[in-house]
Design goal:
Length: about 200
Amino acid sequence: MMTSKNDVRSVLNKNWHLRDLSNDDSTSAIGQVTGYACVFNQPSEDLGFIEYCDPNMFDGVDMSNVLALYSHDLSNVLGRVSANTLVLGVDDYGLKFTLDIPDTTLGRDVYTNIKNGNLEGCSFGFTIKDDSWNRDENGQLVHTILQIGELTEISITPLPAYTETSVAVSRGLKKINEETRRKKARLFLDLTEMEVF
């Protein structure tokens, strides 16, 4: 598993694009899958807060050595940018990837499970460089990832929901909850003082 300093976010990929490469003698890949590891401006599921990914969050991020993993497990490598088996690109929708699935036991299992619809999730592991926390007009806590510090991996996952949160998200959530608690306490004190007069 990735270290706890990394954040992980998952997205549902019901429309994988698969290409069978098993009859292509020029490659050792059995197939190719294209999808999105991250989508922009889409609300997460309610995790006690709603999260959004800013369209500029990957600006200036080095993606030259990103890994493709199965389920965030470093012992389950499927590809790598530096090996030309993983291609990453950012478009208006999100972080798009094309992965050449290796002709390994893991690769064949992953490819078959994607084809059969058993695997619908994709994630990315990263560190946060800049983010914001606020509350919307309904009081819902909103977290926006503004800038990625480091993109370490993308993963094909069996669970297409947010799978983990790291210390960085927990600290930010704790901070905004503390600020909200202080504001309520100040408001209570102000109201109490008003009643005294």
